[in-house]
Design a protein that fits this description.
heterodimer, A: 170 residues, mainly alpha, B: 0% strand
Chain lengths: 170, 177
């Protein structure tokens, strides 16, 4: 169980770029190296992670931990994945709050903001690749886009509406 | 100003409605934290987002840490992270215990058929507004477009681009002074 915990600490520590980068890292560690899941089971984990709320990495860690050691295992793996984040992101946040008035530091963030836009657009395209499979999904995209654009509706309501439309008409 | 409880419930809601990974979370956090409750400036949130993307670990968790600490210190951080994690952990444990073939259930499949394009639409709109706030102009449009092509189509890891951006930014401001 401890080796599983440290494996997930490692996954958290060495995965940059969120979601799918983390899944690749988990696959390498959990399937290829330790054999805790078969490739088929891992594909199930990915599918379930995409279809449940919450960060994909947390979902995958919870699922794999639960499979191996029950509730305690799932909590331990989840904690393992977020432990490096807790330490490093806290340091980053403190640094940011301390230095954000300095011109050279502001310059870094001015450029990082632009880079961040590109990363979000890239993520959107990756989600979009799996999303637009037929005219129905294009229609849903159009409806949601219009609703949020026109009325600035809270995204939560838009998601509920989309889920209901999908269940009713999809 | 926000209380620990409202911070927790806000992130619980964000965690429960984040579908398909961290980037689906961005419009939710922005709508709740910046627009609805006015706890944080848009630009501050975007800085946090940029930092969260530059830090290892799940981006959604990194953003929660930033927002939580920024608003309420260490306690705020703990509360925001817990709020984000609880819906995810609970739903996965339930699925693992009760219905192992959840992903194949017809109704779930149908709902996600519509949820995925909805998430794309929800990310697209704030992206346009954020581009304006980030100071995107024709002269610097090349940077996000290059990142989009390299990461989205050529599968280059964002880490290298982030490190390069930081190095170039520091060098240019050193040269200026």
């Amino acid at each position: 169980m401890l080796s599983m915990f440290f494996t997930f600490v490692k996954v958290g520590l060495f995965s940059f770029g969120g979601g799918y980068a983390i899944l690749a890292m988990i696959q390498q560690e959990v399937v290829s190296k330790h054999g805790w899941l078969s490739p088929g089971e891992f594909a199930d984990v990915v599918a379930i992670s995409q279809m449940t709320p919450g960060p994909i990495a947390i979902n995958a860690a919870t699922f794999i931990g639960f499979r191996q050691y029950g509730v305690l295992g799932s909590l331990l793996c989840t904690f393992g994945v977020i432990l490096p984040s807790l330490v490093l992101m806290l340091i980053l946040t403190l640094t940011y709050l301390k230095l954000r008035k300095r011109p050279w530091f502001q310059n870094i963030f001015k450029n990082l903001r632009l880079l961040s836009l590109g990363l979000i657009a890239a993520a959107m395209i990756m989600i979009g690749r799996g999303a637009f499979t037929d005219w129905f999904s294009v229609g849903i995209f159009g409806i949601c886009f219009l609703i949020v654009w026109r009325w600035k509706t809270n995204p939560v309501y838009v998601l509920v509406l989309a889920a209901l439309l999908g269940m009713g008409l999809g | 100003m926000c209380s620990l409880i409202s911070l927790f419930t806000t992130f619980l809601k964000i965690g429960a409605f984040t579908i398909g990974g961290a980037y689906a979370m961005i419009p939710l956090i922005r709508a709740e934290v910046c627009q609805k409750r006015g706890w944080m400036e848009d630009l501050e949130f975007m800085d946090g987002l940029a930092a969260a993307q530059s830090c290892p670990g799940p981006i959604a968790i990194n953003v929660s840490i930033y927002v939580g600490y920024h608003l309420k210190g260490a306690k705020g951080m703990a509360v925001a992270v817990l709020g984000t994690v609880i819906p995810s952990t609970l739903s996965i444990i339930l699925i693992a215990m009760l219905f192992s073939r959840y992903a194949e259930a017809e109704l779930v499949r149908k709902a996600f058929h519509a949820l995925k394009p909805a998430v794309v639409a929800l990310i697209a709109l704030p992206l346009i507004e954020m581009a304006r706030k980030a100071g995107l102009r024709p002269s610097n449009l090349w940077l996000p477009v290059l990142v989009l092509v390299l990461v989205g189509f050529a599968d280059i890891s964002p880490v290298y681009l982030i490190l390069l951006t930081i190095a170039v930014s520091v060098l240019t401001s050193l040269r200026r002074t």
